[in-house]
Amino acid sequence: MSANLCNRYAGLAARVYDLDKPIGRSFGDVEFYTRRLEVCDGPVLEPAVGSGRVLVPLLEAGFDVTGFDASAAMLDLCRAACEARGLRAELSVARFDDFSYATRFGAVVLPAGSFQLIATAQEGLAALKRFHDHLQPGGRLILDLDPVSAVLAPPGPTRSWTDANGDLLTLAEERIDSDLLNQTVVSHLRYDLWTDGRLSVSELELFALRWWSVEEMRLALGAAGFVDVIVSGGYEHGRLPRREDDVITFEARRPL
């Protein structure tokens, strides 16, 4: 699997993401994270911030949020969204394995399963330790995981969006690998831009996700130094997950 093509969210991918998940669209996560952050003290870090779907509402709610993303194209969209609303946030290009801040945060948040972009269990544990070390004592990590059934679900049909210029963007996905041993799936994603009925640009990416069981993540959080792990289903804080839940959220604390 080419690392240069994997989960890179380049130009067309970033545009499609922003059209499909615009700022203002919530899956229940924006409201949930807003409520949970009200009990946290200090600035907030959002890794894999993307185009700002969650960051912008948090800024508008008065939180001090810093974000990073591996995709410069996504960050360009995020900066533009902040500037259009008169908001300010520190945004930088970084990855899960190399981000570094002098600030110690009151919370680190990863909504919408972005943690599952990390390809291996070892890299995931290293990222959890890095999150832990960037929290102030008593600070909280809050992250979402998609359930195994969602990760393993077969790709759907080709999808399409029309942007503000009237251009058509399409996305076709083909599953090329399901590794039950390493708990990963990999898909080919083909993004096409159509202008005046003609194909003008195509981009190919590899999209990889790793699934985690509830107990595996609970153990990983403990190994990374976290305590007081709370597992919730369906954005109902403290309610144990059910089989039909679309999302499982973990909240854990760095010890005082």
From TrEMBL:
<dbReference type="GO" id="GO:0008168">
    <property type="term" value="F:methyltransferase activity"/>
</dbReference>
<keyword id="KW-0808">Transferase</keyword>
<dbReference type="GO" id="GO:0032259">
    <property type="term" value="P:methylation"/>
</dbReference>
<dbReference type="InterPro" id="IPR041698">
    <property type="entry name" value="Methyltransf_25"/>
</dbReference>
<dbReference type="Pfam" id="PF13649">
    <property type="entry name" value="Methyltransf_25"/>
</dbReference>
<protein>
    <submittedName>
        <fullName>Glycine/sarcosine N-methyltransferase</fullName>
        <ecNumber>2.1.1.156</ecNumber>
    </submittedName>
</protein>
<keyword id="KW-0489">Methyltransferase</keyword>
<dbReference type="InterPro" id="IPR029063">
    <property type="entry name" value="SAM-dependent_MTases_sf"/>
</dbReference>
<feature type="domain" description="Methyltransferase">
    <location>
        <begin position="44"/>
        <end position="139"/>
    </location>
</feature>
